[in-house]
Amino acid sequence: MMKKIALVTGGFTGESVISLKSAAVVEKTIDRSKYDVFKILIYPGNWYHETADGERIPVDLNDFSIQIKGKKIKFDGVFNILHGSPGEDGKLAGYFDMVGLPYTTCDALTSSITMNKGYTKAIVQDIPELFVARSIQLFENIEENKDRILHDLRLPLFVKPNNGGSSIGMSKVKDPKELQEALDKAFAEDSQVLVEEFVSGREFSIGVYHAKGETTVLPATEIVSSKEFFDFEAKYSPGVTEEITPGRMSQEEVERVNRIIEQVYQKLNCKGAVRIDYFLEHDTGKFYFIEINTVPGQTETSLISQQVRAIGMDVKDFYTDLIEEMFT
């Protein structure tokens, strides 16, 4: 008998647009000979499954079930592809834990911590061979912050919402006169903002996942952007960024990166597939941790699928591994 899988998408933030695109790819790729898939859309106060003829079936939040033609459908597990809140920040994970449903992504604690870039850096910074850029975490948008930033950190700077992904609200500041606008932009997205020094280096993004008893670090993708940095447009607009998979690294760099990435995955107690962004500094080759995404995109231009194919694996089989892992 096929397992019933809820494919969860939508969301409460601007990342819902990307989540829907990711869900469309997963929906058409997932192995339908093994799984009966029901896409569940989650919006504030409106959780539903949409049937083929357009009928919206509300989700019973008591047990995360739906009723179709008088028949109650309970799911065996959840394929979570909801970026941002509530799918990536731990809220949904906590709910699924309470109703007893397994899911493909990290648990509630890991999800909530890794959504906060400052907290994540504090946890991983003592991993051997891993470096983090100097930074300041801000909790309010006040005038005194600018003086503190310019005194304690060196330009250029990255200013970014501390919670969230997809580079929404992120700016690169090269002139002090640009700082306030960047802070305003970031605080418009989040109540906490991270300001960190720019690291001059080659940028990479790398996937890692656990399945069948082992942790697999995928080949890294090198990001060569025509933009100032890997922002929202660069991530999701074809042609803006050159993505080289596997990225151009020496054998020593590959081995060192893989050591670090596996330790990051383990130290943060990750589950399922995550994507970690990092720099290799130009002059020194040092590994600088940028951030982790615990619900990485699965759109047509996303990186994880490229990396899976680079190891000779079918993306369909990759999704099967993620689903089966949540039942172990």
Please explain how this structure is put together:
Helices cover 30% and strands 30% of the residues. By secondary structure, the chain is an alpha+beta fold. Among the domains are: 3-104, Rossmann fold (3-Layer(aba) Sandwich), CATH 3.40.50.20; 135-197, ATP-grasp fold, A domain (Dna Ligase, domain 1), CATH 3.30.1490.20. The strands form four sheets. Strands 8, 13, 14, 15, 16, 17 and 18 form a seven-stranded mixed sheet that branches. The chain has a five-stranded mixed sheet with strand order 4-3-2-1-7, with helices on one face. The mean pLDDT is 92.
Overall outline: globular
Helix content: 25-40%
Largest sheet: 7 strands, mixed
Which CATH architecture of the domain at 3-104 would you pick? 3-Layer(aba) Sandwich
Contiguous runs where pLDDT drops below 50 for at least 5 residues: none
Number of helices: 10
In the CATH scheme, the class of the domain at 3-104 would be Alpha Beta
Distance between the termini: 18 Å
**What is Rg?**
20 Å
Please provide the ordered H/E string of secondary-structure elements: EHEEEEEEHHHEEHEEHEEEEHEHEEHH
Overall pLDDT level: 92
State the total count of DSSP E strands.
Answer: 18
Structural class: alpha+beta
The percent range for strand residues is: 25-35%
EC number: 6.3.2.4
Subcellular location: Cytoplasm
Family: Belongs to the D-alanine--D-alanine ligase family.
Keywords: ATP-binding, Cell shape, Cell wall biogenesis/degradation, Cytoplasm, Ligase, Nucleotide-binding, Peptidoglycan synthesis
